[in-house]
């Protein structure tokens, strides 16, 4: 076990920052921890290194020095961290930054590895310079690829050889895939150019049609017309007069994307519903609609123009299709003036407009994997035989096509369409890395490209570190896939045939948006395309990275592919391919009841860990932390992640600090990267917070999670949790995991529960994939139910989504549905016993679970389900419940624990202490336990605790601080000492407590750092019972000394600590060291010339004149205790 005195020797109190009021608040009791510690409790008090937080350690923004490396690593070790992830992430490299992978840089890596070994810290390495995975060694051939196509219309007798236009090309790299021809469908011939007019004379109408790719032209950077809202609020009209009637069936256009796409975020914890899109996400209203008119006077609506949400990647093209519409006049009626956040305007930018007589697949760009939106219900019209491609009539001309586009082929009689298909790089590049080592992203569907990335970046680092005795790289970290989508790789056709069982060649036009055989068949083929993309990313990229890491003795921790949802991946399958699945959560907003509602995908990481039998589920923690963040604000976000299954925190992020002395806060990179480094004002007092996380993660890494529901999300991609889409919503009080087909097919049945190979058990399966289900999944569900599984099936499956069965699987699927749900039509609600199992439908899951006798695992009657968050693990005969007060106020509840038995204990992750929980009673719903939690407090309620006799009784739980009577108020004057080296007055007398930010002196108002408050008071007699020193309001952290003895470091409300053993009769001296944020100093420095600034930073996130932050000891400071007033 780790040396428990390592960090206390540096004045970090082992019990600092306690929290428990029948659970906990950040207060210290003077009572010694209870004797009789057992094998779980000992490491809980001093968590092992693997349980402690880790941090992304950013290099490259500055010079890298041995002194700075040692300073950084010792600071992380002293604060309670268990490891670092060396990550070259750079926003603006300094001139003396070391070049990535240079001999000098590798020497610093070797030194860092040696220092980590000396300090007992784990060292991991990011998969790339910058993120996500790539570099100069990734050639265009090894980069992420996209299928592209050009279409040529010919008639019989056209002279040969034909010269086919090369499809759009990026980075001067293009390779042909196929050349196909078929008898032209209706509307295939190009339409005449219309006369275009608008009621807005400022619109550049030529730009509206710009951006249609020409030969060899890449997609990005094309011109668009800017369309501003009219001053009178009326729609903008853009009319097209063809002179005579024409027939249209589709329209394609490019657009500037508005807002973030709701697909990229999941708001958990939060309210389930169609508007729960995630923090900062919103639905983008339609841009307008296409209308048609015979006479130019009377107009009818044809189709809406959907808006696109922002996703990482350059693709900005969208196609809508509609039934054949014949008219002379068409027009765009534009009215959807959304707001583009980066540009801070509501203008529409539209280009690349193509009005087309040919049929197209509606929004094929998403269905074919160029975008990662959820594939909605198919809106492609049911075109007739003459409007679509007959696959039997497709002629393969690939062998007749020369590299220059020359085609040696004589078209048979009639009109023909020739489609030249090839692949080209998407152009996605790594970003935020050392500039000289950035490059193309490697192909995420290719094992070969993945190996090249590993060999060129990880390989040299491994070789360097192996030369250091005792040092090692423990693992590789892979960040979220924020590189845009791709839908091709050189062996895609072969991989497709291997995985889907049929030849894609004659159906390739579907990937260019051209319907083949029928709209339904085309949709099925494109489902298979998306599924193949997901499988390849999971296997060829994440699977290959993991295999290579294992061969080198390392693990892989990956956001696979991550919350950004840039391509149609399977988030559970991909996370199952790595050793430690990783999610992330953001610190999006401050204050109010919604504070802990953030953007997170932690539940997906936890689900993958549970389903694949992995011990750890990690999270990129506290992303987006502004410079004025501090532990009290971080606490509820951390608790929410823990309650969603996370048991390893990887903090984003700390910059390498190469300088000693006065260069503080130092290298701060961007607005988000000041807090988590040794030069932050409150860093030296932050150990209690980090140790709290380590204790929580230690317990949450033990045993097996207790999860009632396994949600099967189907098999379509992107496969992920989305609160706006997942139905039915998980019922409060019941934990859930999510899976796709791959995980479902691994499930067995035991005693009515689904069981996974890793030992995970689920009492109930919930089918949440809609009315589409693969035959493999349906067959397996039927088998599971026959053998005893209980299934909630709200929607009866009606179709298979794939073409792998030739489209004939629906008959068998419907037969299986009849056996599971009964012959159609089924009643609106009901249940059906099938073999030893049961299928239920028509009610909310909570109703079904009650019928099955499965009560809530945890709940607090009469409280909002979001008031208290909980997660439950079974450890041998013990049951551990982590319970967090999600609200910014104290709560007193009678909490019900379904699996509680025996005398419960409260284990406080903030202090490492444990307490008895009297008053527990057995009820039909479980064990009822009185809990009183301070705001944002958390506690482990432990049942069935083994003890080592003899063990004295545990101490009673602590009271809520607000319920302890105030016996004395320590009023002014207060003696206060600031640090003159950082601009503060050496000494000051404050008649009364208040914020430094409102003081008359600039030196106080703009001070950042620690100030020491001193006060003396007399006690005629000592208080009876526990005495609490309550500091009232503190901004932002305080360490309390009483009569020279350190009592506690207090970092969240209530700022109170037990001072009983430190008080004495007569004169008492209290000293309170209060530390604020860097903000006030940086705000002042922003208005000063460089030579007069006190702080030093590479990036100041504040501006002169910004509002100052409350700072210091605001009080009131009171002495609280339950007995008679002392002195």
From TrEMBL:
The record, for InterPro entries, names: Galactose-bd-like_sf (IPR008979), TAT_signal (IPR006311)
GO MF annotations, alphabetized: hydrolase activity, hydrolyzing O-glycosyl compounds
Matching Pfam families: Glyco_hydro_106 (PF17132)
The UniProt record lists the keyword Transport: no
Origin: domain of life = Bacteria
What are the alphabetically sorted keywords of the record? Hydrolase, Signal
Query: This protein is called what?
Result: Glycosyl hydrolase family 2
Species source reads Pseudoduganella umbonata
Organism ancestry: Bacteria, Pseudomonadati, Pseudomonadota, Betaproteobacteria, Burkholderiales
